[in-house]
Amino acid sequence: MVTDRDMVGVKPPDSGIARLRALSELGARLIAANLPGDSPTQTIAQDLKLAMELQRSLQPGWDPNDLPIWGFNLPARQMSGDFFDFYRTGKGDFAFSLGDVSGKGMGAALLMAKTISLFRCLSKRIEDVAELLTAINAELCETATRGLFVTMVVGRYSPRDGHVRFANAGHEPPLMRRKDRTYKTFPADAPPLGILSNYDVRSEEIDLAGGEFYVFSDGLTEYRYAGGEQLGVDGLIQLVEINAAEPPAKRVEAIIQMLDEEAGWDAHDDLTVLAIDDSWVGQEGSHVATPPTRKEASG
Questions:
Q1: Residue ranges making up the domain that contains 182
Q2: Neighbouring C-beta atoms of residue 206, cutoff 10 Å
Q3: Is residue 35 part of a domain?
Q4: 163: Cβ–Cβ under 8 A, 6 or more apart, which residues?
């Protein structure tokens, strides 16, 4: 099991309100820039670059320590509609979330930022994951517009006993890898957030017992190779097995980068995955995670 010495350096939780406000202001300017006679192209480019940096800053800090939990996001476009977050609570557990906002562009990115901020704020005082999703849904229903909604998994992982409690709002089924290399999925039993004000979601608790737990966006399982073949859950399992010996941080990076290196991906959707490995104990020679960037953007 993971001990306290492996938890050093985790970025503490914060509300992200200031960054959310700044991102919202940038979003308003970028949306307004689509109107005739508004901001010049150079100003739009500068605002977009800053918005991308602010959006990335809402993700957990990139920490050099090997932790039992890690996430990775590779946007298909300049702004991502996917998100993930995690932090260590005062009790030593890890609160985590991963979600996907419907639609593309600045509107989806702003809703993503709001949902992350709601998670960070509300999860500090609401430990029950079903109650947490219900509270987030209530907030989103008051303000969500233009048919946007959010699929989301929230949970808490305890390194002390290996238990994961989670709830799923219309998201892709999380995947558990047992120590004997068998797998189990957990389909959603509630609709996405931001649609129905009368909301009912149930939580589930599992004992990883040294196994692993993966949450991911549909951009990952719906990835298609050049020949049209879809990755699917079976393909994801193959990638997990290939990289099973790696620490969680390097493992999730490797899974996404292996797909990104395939010439057949034409960037229709974001790729996001979060992994929890109950058996991982930090070792010397920690992997240093780096912010993800698409190869196409570097040229």
A1: 4-16+58-284
A2: 17
A3: no
A4: 157, 205, 206, 207, 208
